[in-house]
C-alpha cells in the first residue's frame, strides 16, 4: 500500500515534484506548470520542507516563482519563498566580500590558494547566488603554506581548530574559513597513491586561471522563455580569456560544461587552458578554482 499524506498525494509523488523543480533549477530549464496546477497547500508545504532538508530552498523557490500564474502556490507561501531567495543572495554576497578580503590578506602574507568546493562549485550554477552558502574552503598548495597560514591566523587572534587530518578552520569576519593541505584523500591505498601523485603534479605545475569575484557570483540576465530556448546551446559551456584589458585576472574557473564528469564539476583540480572556447574537455582533466579578486564592500 502506498504511503499517502492527507492531501491524497503520496510521498513518492511529492518527491517527484520536488526533484522536478530542483532539476529545472540546476539545468536552467522551465518547470512543467501543468504538474503543479491546482496543487494543494499541504503538498506545497511538503515540497518546501524537502527543499529545506536538502539545503536547496532558494534554488527551488526561484523555480516555483517562475511557474505560470495558475500553477503558483498561495500568496503567503510566495512571500516566504521570495524572502528565502533574498536572504540566500545576501548571505552569498557577504561571503564573496569576505573571500575577496581573505584573498588579499593571504596573498600579501605569501599564501596563494585554490578555492574549492562550495563557492567554486556554485560558480557553475545557472545563478550562483541561489546556492545555499556554507564555509570557504581553500587549498594551500605550496609546501609549508598550510602551517604558515595557521601561524598567521593565530598571530591575529583567530583560533584555528582541527577539523580533520587535512584541514583546520577558524571564524573570520563572521564566516568559517577552512584551509586544506590537500584537496581530498582516499581510504584505499591503491587510489590514494594515484591521487597523491596527481595532486603533487597539480601543485607543482600551479597552472591556474583567474577571474574577478564579480564573475564568480553572477546573476543571469532576465529573458523570455523563447530567448532562453534560443540561447540554450550557448549556455552549455563558457571560457575565460587569457588576458583582460581591465587587468590581470586572478585564479579560478576554466571551462564549465554540463556534460563533464562529476569530478570535473567539483572544482577540485586544474586545467592547462585558460581559453577553452569550443574545445572539448577530457573527463580526466578536472577544472580548478582559486582565490578571487576583491571588489570592495559593494558586492558583485
Task: List the defining traits of the structure above.
300 residues, alpha+beta, Beta Polymerase, domain 2, 2 domains, 10 helices, 40% helix, elongated, disordered N terminus
Q: What can you see in these coordinates?
A:
The chain folds into two domains: 11-73, no CATH class; 88-265, 2-Layer Sandwich (Beta Polymerase, domain 2), CATH 3.30.460. It has ten helices and five strands; from the N terminus they run ααααβαβαβββαααα. It has helices at residues 11-26, 41-53, 57-64, 75-109, 117-122, 145-155, 189-205, 213-216, 225-230, 262-265, and strands spanning 114-116, 136-139, 161-162, 168-172, 175-180. Strands 1-2-5-4-3 form a five-stranded mixed beta sheet. The protein starts with 10 loop residues before the first helix and ends in a 35-residue tail after the last helix.
Report the helical percentage. 40-55%
**Strand order in the sheet with the most strands:** 1-2-5-4-3
**Low-pLDDT sequence parts:** 1-6, 227-300
> CATH class of the largest domain, anyone?
Alpha Beta
Structural class: alpha+beta
What is the number of independent domains?
2
Mean pLDDT: 74
Query: Could you describe the largest sheet, including whether it forms a barrel?
Result: 5 strands, mixed
Strand fraction: 5-15%
CATH fold field value of the largest domain: Beta Polymerase, domain 2
Task: Tell me, briefly, the overall form.
Answer: elongated
Q: How far is the N terminus from the C terminus? A: 52 Å
Amino acid at each position: 500500500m502506498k504511503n499517502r499524506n492527507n492531501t491524497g498525494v503520496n510521498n513518492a509523488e511529492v518527491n517527484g515534484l520536488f526533484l522536478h523543480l530542483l532539476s529545472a533549477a540546476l539545468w536552467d530549464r522551465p518547470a512543467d506548470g501543468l504538474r503543479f496546477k491546482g496543487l494543494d497547500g499541504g503538498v506545497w508545504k511538503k515540497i518546501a520542507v524537502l527543499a529545506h532538508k536538502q539545503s536547496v530552498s532558494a534554488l527551488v523557490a526561484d523555480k516555483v516563482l517562475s511557474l505560470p500564474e495558475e500553477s503558483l502556490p498561495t500568496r503567503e507561501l510566495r512571500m516566504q519563498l521570495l524572502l528565502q531567495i533574498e536572504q540566500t543572495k545576501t548571505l552569498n554576497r557577504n561571503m564573496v566580500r569576505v573571500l575577496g578580503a581573505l584573498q588579499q590578506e593571504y596573498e600579501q602574507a605569501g599564501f596563494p590558494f585554490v578555492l574549492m568546493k562550495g563557492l567554486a562549485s556554485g560558480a557553475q550554477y545557472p545563478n550562483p547566488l541561489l546556492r545555499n552558502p556554507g564555509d570557504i574552503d581553500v587549498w594551500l598548495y605550496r609546501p609549508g603554506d598550510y602551517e604558515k597560514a595557521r601561524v598567521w591566523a593565530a598571530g591575529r587572534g583567530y583560533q584555528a581548530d582541527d577539523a580533520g587530518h587535512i584541514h583546520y578552520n577558524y571564524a573570520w569576519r563572521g564566516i568559517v574559513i577552512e584551509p586544506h593541505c590537500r584537496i581530498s584523500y582516499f581510504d584505499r591505498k591503491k587510489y590514494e597513491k594515484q591521487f597523491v601523485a596527481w595532486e603533487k603534479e597539480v601543485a607543482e605545475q600551479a597552472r591556474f586561471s583567474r577571474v574577478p569575484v564579480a564573475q564568480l557570483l553572477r546573476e543571469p540576465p532576465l529573458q523570455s522563455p523563447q530567448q532562453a530556448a534560443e540561447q540554450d546551446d550557448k549556455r552549455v559551456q563558457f571560457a575565460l580569456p587569457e588576458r583582460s584589458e581591465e587587468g590581470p585576472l586572478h585564479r579560478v574557473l576554466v571551462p564549465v560544461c554540463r556534460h563533464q564528469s562529476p569530478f570535473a564539476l567539483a572544482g577540485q583540480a586544474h586545467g592547462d587552458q585558460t581559453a577553452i572556447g569550443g574545445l572539448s574537455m577530457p573527463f580526466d582533466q578536472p577544472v580548478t578554482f582559486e582565490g578571487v579578486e576583491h571588489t570592495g564592500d559593494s558586492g558583485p
